[in-house]
Design brief:
By secondary structure, the chain is an alpha/beta fold. Helices cover 44% and strands 13% of the residues. The chain has two domains: 7-53 and 63-147 and 230-260, 2-enoyl-CoA Hydratase, Chain A, domain 1 (Alpha-Beta Complex), CATH 3.90.226; 148-229, no CATH class. Helix 3 (99-111) links the parallel strand 4 and strand 5 (116-120). Residues 288-297 have a biased composition (Basic and acidic residues).
Length: 297
Amino acid sequence: MSFGIGDLFWIFLLLSSLQPLWQRRQIEYRRFRSIQEFQQQRRSRAILLIHRQESISLLGIPLSRYITIEDSEQILRAIRLTPPEVPIDLILHTPGGLVLATEQIARALIRHPSKVTVFVPHYAMSGGTMLALAADEIIMDANAVLGPVDPQLGNFPAASILKVVEDKPISEVDDQTLIMADLSRKAIQQVQRFVRTLLKDCMPKQKIKPENIENIVEALTTGRVTHDYPVTVEEATEMGLPVTVGLPRIVYDLMELYPQPQGGRPTVQYIPMPYDDRRPLLPVPKGRPLEEPNQRI
């Protein structure tokens, strides 16, 4: 039996179609082994909530990921499957998401009897910060950030809607804005009440000093900064949050297994190895030295 060029073409096409499936299986296996190793090192239940920008089918249309009801269902199931005496480690990389889903996860975390630790390798904004507030310890990279949790109504911050009503005479404000202001006031009160509940959590022990709770609520929920304001490690520590700096190496290795889908030319490139400063010496110039040009400021 002989093979022709046409047969080789079809074999090549078959292998090419199977390659993405094989690669996906490989990375899923590596993720499973890394999570298993992390759990063995920490003697805990590891849960990952990582949101990258995905691509829809073959169209290449970017789709932003965020915390959804499906996420809350999966995380609540993982928490239910965790024995009461086993700590929970939650690795967060998210821009936030739905308030309902976030609050469900946060309530389940503070109800877990053992220690809950949140790891933030890069950022956990908005709803991600709310999940971090539910933890007994927040372990962050030195350059990682959290964010405010002030409520947003559509495309507008609730605090800004209230400011419009405060600054303008009531006769000059339309009915829709007044309705939005009423909803904004309720939303801010609800978020403040919930954040206060998270910060007062004392299971297995008190994590926030009582005198710091109201300052944290004021800083994160009142909209005194923009919603995308980065709360650095230093600022979070100054507020009184239980922040520890320095992630285990395995957390970074896990993040490498959730790469951003590439499309076209990469926007960041570097040689993936420790920087070596032992550079070869430049040859000594011969002849008279060049005149230095006049410098201007």
